[in-house]
């Protein structure tokens, strides 16, 4: 069979010395970085990534608050659901799953401390929503025509959260 | 662009008409004040749109003499329901404007969408409608 035939050096026009020389040359080129395995340059962060990070961080924070303060569940659960819907929409718009950790890059939310009252927790979320609103408004102003509708709705929703937390 | 502006204008004119009608069914001072403030804001948005449409060289068309209401407005509750429906409709009309505008005009469109969505939340709260919010104000369906 063809696949088991020995390939003689003379048939491919190569001598052992030339092959060794080529290997040496490759090693040298590798040493200068031409063939090295440097990591690819990082993919530019999408302009909507901060909006996505905030949506994920807020959804997580609401879920935690609901667990620690069940009395506010009825009030906060719909807001958490809104943020999860935003995250799904933003992942679609960005076109890939988020490479960043929401906990690491999201807004600096004050985790409800043990013993915090419902009023204190809600006030903290209101502040966080106001901050997130600013991010979404800036993103809507700067984004493309195709994305403007979705990002505008997300900004408007965050404004309604501020109102709902009054 | 003029098509989106015209749709937003139609929604604002309908809102002005609706607030004139539903306002008389509200009795609490805070509710009456909120309805008057909303109507004024819709008048300002309408005027802005008329100017924009004129800048584009288009005609804004005549304002309808009246509208068919989606349900009878017979009392406070139905008046508040109409206010919710009107604001949701205004938000839906402004959202497409975002995609055909930039800079200051987009800022105005976003403010109009946001203000309508926030007013809808206030009317829902007054009429004990839950949930107060929706994930995508202005998105139809």
From TrEMBL, chain B:
User: InterPro entries of this UniProt entry?
Assistant: DUF4439 (IPR029447), Ferritin-like (IPR012347), Ferritin-like_SF (IPR009078)
Q: What is this protein called?
A: DUF4439 domain-containing protein
Where's the DUF4439 domain?
Answer: 6-140
Family annotation (Pfam families): DUF4439
Q: Which organism encodes this protein?
A: Paractinoplanes toevensis
The positions making up the signal sequence are none
């Amino acid at each position: 069979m063809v696949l088991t035939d020995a390939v003689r050096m003379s048939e491919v026009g190569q001598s052992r010395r030339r092959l060794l020389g080529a290997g040496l040359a490759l090693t040298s080129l590798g040493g200068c970085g031409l063939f090295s395995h440097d990591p690819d340059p990082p993919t530019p962060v999408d302009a909507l990534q901060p909006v996505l990070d905030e949506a994920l961080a807020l959804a997580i924070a609401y879920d935690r608050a609901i667990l620690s303060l069940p009395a506010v569940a009825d009030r906060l659960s719909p807001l958490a659901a809104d943020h999860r819907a935003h995250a799904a929409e933003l992942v679609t718009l960005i076109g890939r799953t988020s490479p960043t950790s929401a906990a690491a890059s999201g807004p600096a939310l004050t985790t409800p401390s043990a013993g915090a009252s419902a009023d204190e927790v809600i006030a903290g979320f209101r502040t966080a929503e106001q901050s997130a609103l600013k991010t979404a408004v800036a993103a809507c102003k700067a984004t493309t025509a195709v994305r403007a509708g979705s990002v505008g709705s997300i900004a408007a929703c965050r404004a309604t959260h501020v109102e709902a937390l009054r | 662009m003029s098509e989106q502006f015209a749709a937003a204008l139609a929604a604002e004119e309908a809102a002005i008409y609706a607030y004139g009608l539903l306002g008389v069914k509200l009795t609490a001072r805070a509710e009456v004040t909120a309805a008057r403030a909303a109507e004024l804001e819709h008048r300002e948005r309408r005027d802005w749109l008329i100017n924009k449409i004129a800048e584009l060289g288009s005609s804004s068309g005549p304002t309808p003499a009246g509208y068919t209401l989606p349900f009878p407005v017979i009392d406070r509750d139905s008046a508040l329901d109409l206010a919710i429906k009107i604001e949701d409709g205004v938000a839906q009309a402004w959202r497409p404007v975002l995609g055909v505008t930039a800079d200051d005009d987009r800022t105005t469109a976003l403010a109009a969408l946001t203000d309508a969505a926030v007013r809808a939340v206030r009317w829902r709260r007054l009429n004990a409608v839950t949930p107060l919010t929706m994930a995508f104000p202005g998105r139809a369906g």
